[in-house]
Protein 1
Amino acid sequence: MGESSFDAAEEARKVQHHPEFALVQNSNRNRLTPKLRQRYEIVRLFVKQQSISEVAKKKGVDRKTVRKWITRFLAQGIAGLADKPRTGRHSSIDEGLRQKIMETLAAPVPESYGLKTWQAKALANHLGLPYHPLLRYLKKGRH
């Protein structure tokens, strides 16, 4: 199903006249995450280009992705550009474990490990924690 230039132009006008478009237009790009920055830019470019295909090509994303962010912006405003909460398991690392991890990272690695600094696998084994949840925790930099 192709998009006619009239439909795209009309949709671009709707985006441009959305009550929150000025916020997207004038946002401080340095304070946005890379994902949000890209989504804001998709909305801005769509108003200028009035073509989903051109925006997709310029941003290096699929046309469906551009359509998704335009549709969500029109329906929900800026809130629609944010990630939706994901389902799945919650972290197995609670506050008590976070404290234990911090204390362990602050202490020297036992000589028997033969390491100068902690490595994720050694830390997981030392604390008796599953490796992957600990690795995700460390990568997110919450410590």
Note: The two ends are 49 Å apart (CA to CA).
Protein 2
Amino acid sequence: MKQRSVLLAAVALASLAGFAQAQTKSAADGIAEYRKMLEDGNPADLFEAKGEELWKQKRGPKSASLERCDLGLGPGVVKGAFVTLPRFFADTGRVQDLEDRLVTCMATLQGFDAAAIAKTAFGRGEMANVTALATYVAAASRGLKFNLPTGHTEEQRFYELGKRAFFFRGGPMDFSCASCHGVDGQRIRLQDLPNLTKNPGDGIGFAAWPAYRVSNGQMWSMQLRLNDCYRQQRFPYPGFASEVTIALGSYMGVNARGAESIAPAIKR
């Protein structure tokens, strides 16, 4: 009887230890495990393949491909371009992010109407193609480290503009980007919120988009991610490739210097 009591006590203690260990695993650990299970079957791969096809396909009024598109590293160079954007382009005279630059190439090389594309809703028509192209370009830089240029005065101006926009509070909720992403250790529901005022680490924040959203079955570009942040702040949607969204990309991208890109990632 005594031996049986000792055995039962040992089993109980082991069960309690296991329970305590389970309790110490954070929600972030659980989400990370969930994403890891989905990585091999990330639907973003399908968008990447579509983007590569669109890049090489002769389309538009000029029946041309995008293989001469200059994303900042020279005509046709894709690998490494994503981790240097947004940046200043002399031919347009402005700082552009990846999506804005792709639309410029679609207009100049293929003859598409850039203004018409900009007015198209995300996920529809040529805007859906822009997202696929952005996914393809981003994937070509997977594993590379962000290193946005800051030598041009416009690149410096956009960084400072993005910083001001990041901390600007307004709207009915008196929110700013910094309300969620301005300090360490915050989270909403089960989601940890990275501090984007500094380098949050490899594959976090700016270094993870474009990404496939499991919750709604959609591929989200960085522009759409920022627009949805404005929706959550109860602000009106910014226009496509507006200065404020590109400036925010400049601010977060420069802050992410040295972080490794995992885009296109998979999100909840």
Note: The chain has one domain: 38-267.
Protein 3
Amino acid sequence: MIRLRPFKKGDAKKILSWFDDERTMVMWCSGIFQYPLTEEQLISHLQKAEEREDQWMMAGVDEQGTVMGHLCMWMDFEKNHVHLGLIAVDNARRGQGLGRQMLEKVLTCAFDVLEADYVTLGVFDCNPQAYACYRKVGFVEDHVEAHAAEYCGESWSRIHMVKKRAD
């Protein structure tokens, strides 16, 4: 069972080990952070999120309270929707369905607590595992942003996905 809780400063050190190469980190953060990822960058991002009323950094924790996932939520109050980003699962624990469970929890929060009409996210086309995870929890493609990012000569398209509130 996965639980969601607010991300804490002490969680930053744990996440550092999840990105052992630049390409993976860039796929995750799309330029928000510089490689190599540091505790200071994560804590600075957390402090900025805490100053805003529309952004939350969350940690996914397992039954023992160990951090195994991370994500950010942004609420657009005018359009009544939530955007998810910076979604990651501890690379040592990938393939166990934890990302799916974490997303199911955050969707419950978005729809039942925040009462959003829909939830969006973006995933690069070079990340088929994340794409498959998002499809499993009900996200569908909205549109594709061709050549949204470049990394070491690769051109990545961003697939924008949406999940609407069930009627």
Note: Residues 3-117 form a domain with the Aminopeptidase fold (CATH 3.40.630.30).
Protein 4
Amino acid sequence: MIRPVYLVDGARTPFLKAKSGPGPFTPVDLAVQCGRPLLARQNFDSRALDLVILGCVNVLQDEMNPARVAALRLGLGAELVAFTTQINCGSGMQSIDTAYRYIREGSHDMILAGGAEALSHAPLVLRRSAVEWFGQMAQARGPAAQAKAMTGLRAEFFKPIIGLERGLTDPITTLNMGQTAELLAHHFNIDREAADTYAMQSHHRLARAQQEGWLDDEVMPAFDRDGGVHDHDDGVRPDSDLAGLSKPKPAFERPHGKVTAGNASQISDGASWVIVASEDAVEKHGLTPMARIVDSAWAALDPSVMGLGPVLASTLLTERHNLGVVDIDLWELNEAFAAQVLSCIAAWDDPDFCRAVLGLETAFGRIERDQLNIDGGAISLGHPVGTSGNRIVLHLANAMKRLGKKRGIATECIGGGLGGAMMLEAV
């Protein structure tokens, strides 16, 4: 028996742009900051939760299994099981997907599912040669052996590598994520002006959403240890224009590349939670669902074109339910890069691509801009990797409710050549 599953509430922290050093919050700090007010506004005892699942990619050494650490800090009890998921950019959506499947199949009734990431805390990594030298020093016995080992010391050992840079490079293709977006821009003829225009619109849309108060129920203020208050996504640039966006040089493929710091997602810190519940739990606790989780799908493809992951995963999802582009009212497609988002739109509207890659008889169809990322996305608010998949599901539910829309899909590309998608329906 397959049971209906509902998303009943959710909250996130502001997404804080990474600056010159570690930000004020670790991943668990962030998860606790938005988890406390979310749980405080519920009319059920937190002991009604069956499980906690948290997506996190860059786990800190002091917070191993951050789901468990966060659950304990939230006061959810030593008896509650909590585990962490990791599927790169899809980690926050994977937490919801796992919760959805547990509840659908009847083993659980209510799960707290989230994502948390503090990219500003990404570690600095020693070079392999430096690690080997430290090992030799540790094994050296006596003054003579230590002096001999010291002769191998090199100045480069004191220049660490940024761990995040290594993490954003695919180990199979050796391409970094920006280079994969450049490949897509080349394949689908996405020019620099189109990418910059998309980025400008992302900033304008987020700024409007903040000004109109459309994010007030979604974004919970975060309070740091120095008494500072963080109450909004601070990477947004309301005055963004094409003149300013045209100035940065290509970040990865000079001089003719299309991807720049201005039209790519921001490196940021943030967390997001949603509460996923069965129909029994909804009735028992008098909950008001935001949306029903209809289904989810995952797809895999060549890592060099990982940015097309949303096309494969979302099309698989719509085909499974005999739906077309006209049946989806809203889309949240994580903005890894403007060129990548525009390439996905172009791929869906390309009959040859759809026949050859998706197995369709004709083009899937064009997704209109007034249906896609209507309140901005990762270019304007940031992409804390383990969190974004959770945020786009939460925001899709909120946007559908605000606009009275029936059906939506949240989807993202995933480093390593994957894509994830989740379909929601209005209750």
Note: Residues 137 and 150 are 7 Å apart (CA to CA).
